[in-house]
């Protein structure tokens, strides 16, 4: 067989259908783990760190880091999708399922919406139903090791099925509400819900997102 024949017979690796199903529209796959956030990386003392659950609940509670580490632990492998167009497959996070967390903390929410509060002042909103899925975690570890400080140590939320801006790093508060109020990015032109497969990036007109915006950021 000559070269031309061989090339003709070559199977062109068209987009792997499995990959096409996993990669939301307008996203680019990366193997690196970009670091994206507003503001400074907080410094903590785990002895004084707390997570507060408040708002529309039957009782408000404040938990210590030891309380959370004593709760049932889950490891998930998930894909993550940032609105600045990078996606990363097969990320392994360990922590406490949001659902299990509420049960273990002994909190019954009355409100159907949640405002997630991170240090220093970052917020993201979500419907409670979105946080009750199997793969929503309060994560403390990535790939079997504690999160690095820039990726949200000691505790971050992981909501794989929504754009990654909902996955609040340095999580300090979970506030239940009766209405779906917008968080930080949601007040700044981004979608209230943020489903990457429906390309729910913006609340109104498309904002310009340079395709390589995240390429200029830090990685680890
Ligand atoms: N507290 C806090 N959490 C945050 C952010 C932030 O600015 N502050 N940025 C969000 C955005 S836009 C993304 S894409 C992810 C990035 O997480 P990573 O730095 O671990 O990749 O964190 C999300 N969580
Ligand atoms: Mo993002």
UniProtKB/TrEMBL annotation:
Residues 39-185 form the Oxidoreductase molybdopterin-binding domain. Gene3D superfamilies: Oxidoreductase, molybdopterin-binding domain. InterPro entries: OxRdtase_Mopterin-bd_dom, OxRdtase_Mopterin-bd_sf. This is Oxidoreductase. It comes from Brevibacillus aydinogluensis.
